[in-house]
Amino acid sequence: MANQEIQTHTIGNGLTVIVEPMADVQSAAFCLLVPAGSNYDPPGQAGAASVLSDWIMRGAGSRDSRELSNELDNLGLQRNEGAGNSHISFTGATLAESLPKALRIYAEIVQSPHLPDDEFEPARLGVEQSLRAIEDEPRQKVLVELRRRCYEAPWGIPSEGTLEGVEKLDAAVVRKHFENCASPRDAILGIAGKVDVAASIALVEELFGNWKVKPEPSFTRGPRGPQRDHIPHESTQTQIGIAYDSVPYCDPDYYAAWAVVGVLSGGMSSRLFTEVREKRGLCYSVFATLNSLRDQGRVLCYAGTTVERAQETLDVTLQELMRLGEGISEDELDRCKARAKSSLIMQQESSSSRASSNARDWYHLGRVTTLEEVREKIEALTVDSLLAHIARHPAKDFTILTLGPQPLEVNLGVS
Amino acid sequence: MEFHEARLPNGLQIVAERSPSVHSVALGFFVRTGARDETDEVAGVSHFLEHMVFKGTQRHSADDVNRIFDEVGAKYNASTSEETTLFYAAVLPEYLPQSLDLLSDIVRPALRQDDFDMEKKVILEEIGMYDDQPTYTAYENLMQTHFAGHPLGRSVLGTKESIGALECGQMRAYHEARYVAGNLVLAVAGKFDWPDLLARVQTSCSAWPAGAPRRTKAEAHPHGGLKLVTKPNSLQQHIMQMSPAPPGESIMRFAADILTVIVGDDSGSRLFWEMVDPGYAEAAELGYNEFDGSGAYMCFFSCPPEETAANVERVRAIYDDVNRNGVTDVELAQAKSKVASRIVLRSERPMGRLSSLGHNWLQRQEYRRVEDDLATLRNLTLADIRKLLDAYPLAQLTTSAVGPLESL
Q1: What's the pLDDT tens digit per position in A2-16?
Q2: How far apart are CA A244 and CA A293, in angstroms?
Q3: pLDDT band at residue A415, thresholds of 50, 70 and 90?
Q4: Tens of pLDDT along B347-373?
Q5: Distance (Å, rounded) from C-alpha A114 to C-alpha A64?
Q6: pTM (2 decimals)?
Q7: Cα distance from B282 to chain A (closest Cα, Å)?
Q8: Which chain A residues touch B63 with a CB distance below 8 Å?
Q9: Whether A13 contacts A204, CB under 8 Å
């Protein structure tokens, strides 16, 4: 693994910048996380962060909405912005020489957005429509609803917002969300690519140094949804979502948890793909993934299958989860290690991956892990350490949600 | 970057672009076959066959195929379109020999009856899955209506009926006819040693049967039409529209690409400012689809049903204006900046280069460096766009709609 020179620096107001120079690319990328995520949406008005992430792009500093967009396009910036639970994220990538100009504009977006009244309703309508589009896509819908049932509020509430919530939002509420939350405290800026470390840090000091700190906002906790549920839906397939508790990214057990999910669902030789799809032909799409918040984690599983085969799909999937503790082979673990090694190395080809990955590390761990460090941790995994992890965090107490024409039975008796 | 090409005596072509600064290598077999090369009796066979390729050969069982790819940590998959079937993997350079050995073995699959029967269930599930996705339904119906009577109007997935009735023998015959050496291109991008690579390809692929099947390439002359699917429980109306654009061989394809960025990129375009920014539509995009011998502009938008008629009108007004007055210098310069940066970013990863390398060679026997793409882009003028619009104006010829509306 190549040597990485990652430099982190926290400026006076709390913003942390992480810079990773990459020798072999022409591009540079950034990932700016502003702690104004959907966790701070006012109760009953889910979607404030989501609408803000659109509205905030509609003019800042000396530029109105159209000038701002044109200028970013002229810089060739490929960009994205959106609300997550904890942060609103702004990401962008372009040719390295254009990055400083892009950062200059983003500094204005987060510190002095216009949030013009006449642009509020279009921003709100855009979010409302993307939520309506999710209602029309059962695959997306079941995963959004599964989160609501396996995480307490606010973490389980969709960070995109809800239709009921977005309907009730007005400009004053969303502006208040910005004023309360958009602050350099706990803000993180990852920069990676063909960049100079000292110059990048100096630029960030200059652009973000005067960003005012605000008191930490609070959020309200609430219950999660029902552990067993069915949402009636006229569709060809039944969508199945299953969740159970695991560990978060900051947990020392994280890499073991990652490998166990890899045994279940990493690559086409994994257990779910083999048992559910290859051997039985029950689905086209079946997978499990490890989802992590800062202090809690879940394994989320998905399968979509036609109505008459849905019961068998659910039964087989649950059995695969429950028999994890019975044993894992050396070969299965080796395949996980091989996949990890190649993705770690391939990450070095993408400035966007590195910028985002470093920012995410800082949020979860308060430090950055090098690729070499991750490689060592994965190499150190053994079948015994995986089984010990499963003993501590067995697949049980499932949250199960189905969406489709008919509900299913949950059969946990066998194994 | 260093380019190599070779042709085996049986007709298999190999194109390879070496970039020593990357950390991985991507390789893919591009097969010149897809839905347009099928007949009614075997509708959907290209895509079904793509799945069967992973079910193994005389030398490798289905389990072996998945296991070996995972053992080398490959990122691998396959895809089938109207005209190309692609099998690819991205791996660390030390695993190139194993990956090439496996990939070149599986494109000549055993096609065992019991695997065929099992995988048929998966295909039927895939059809069911897409059936629940309004955008996919809209696309299928659009292609079938726009290209009615032309091979490009054939469905990639086929139907429940055509897949249900398909027999393994028919698939074997299709494979025998279409997967002959002259109908495949092997593309490799990233870190590799050319003499070693070529020697390995010679060992693995020299015994393949020769041949180069024909394809009917006549340019389509669509008559247009409307296909409406009413889904009373949908919340959004999904609309797709198509009209003729330059064929994939045409020099005008570069102008068509940039024109669609100006008019219909997902942000900062005319459609964006008129429809998405004001909140009239959730998404509104225009793209250029190039095919062998034909081409199409394809517009997509999704909006509340009651906003549909007004949005169709907005698209029409934009098209009218562009057809009549062209685009501006400022728009062209801005689109060039966006596209140049996309080209460079995509090319930083071997997987990004693979697609361009393989498709250019398969479709046009052409190698284009990143610098060539950037130079062509730089040299595009308003006159090129005018010429394009005169030959292929933007139009709303064919419409496909999925959503609550009962009429349009």
Answers
A1: 678 999 999 999 999
A2: 14
A3: very low
A4: 999 999 999 999 999 999 999 999 999
A5: 8
A6: 0.96
A7: 5
A8: 269, 274, 278
A9: no
Q: Taking CB atoms and an 8 Å limit, are B119 and A133 in contact across chains?
A: no
Residue B31, SS3 per DSSP: strand
**Residues A365, B219: Cα–Cα separation, whole Å:** 58
Nearest to A8 by CA among A265, A146, A269, A192: A192
Which chain A residues have a beta carbon less than 8 Å from that of B342? Answer: 76, 78
For B278, the token pair is 């004001």
Nearest by CB to A339, which of B70, B267, B277? B70
Q: How far apart are CA A200 and CA A206, in angstroms?
A: 10
Provide the CA B56 distance to its chain's centre, in angstroms: 25
> Which of helix, strand or coil describes residue B395?
coil
CA distance B130 to B32: 24
Nearest CA in chain B to A75: B337
The C-alpha atoms of residue B34 and residue A280 are separated, in whole angstroms, by 27
Nearest beta carbon to residue A269 from set B22, B70, B341: B70
Check A345 against B74: CB less than 8 A apart.
Answer: no
- The reply to whether A380 touches chain B by the CB within 8 Å rule is no
Q: Is A26 on the interface with B (CB under 8 A)?
A: yes
Please, are residues A331 and A339 in contact by the beta-carbon 8 Å criterion?
no
Residue B262 has pLDDT above 50, yes or no: yes
Q: What is the mean pLDDT of chain B?
A: 97
Report the complex ipTM.
0.94
| Neighbouring residues of B58: CB distance < 8 A, sequence distance ≥ 6 | B110
Nearest-by-CA chain B residue for A127: B282
Contact B70 A267 (CB under 8 A): yes
Strand (E) positions, A343-385? none
- Output DSSP code: residue A3: -
Q: Which H or E run contains B79?
A: strand B75-80
For the stretch B89-108, pLDDT in tens is 999 999 999 999 999 999 99
Helix axis angle for A351-365 and A330-347, nearest 10°, is 110
- Cβ distance A267 to B66 less than 8 Å, yes or no, reads yes
Looking at the complex, report in whole angstroms how far the Cα of residue B89 sits from the nearest Cα belonging to chain A.
12
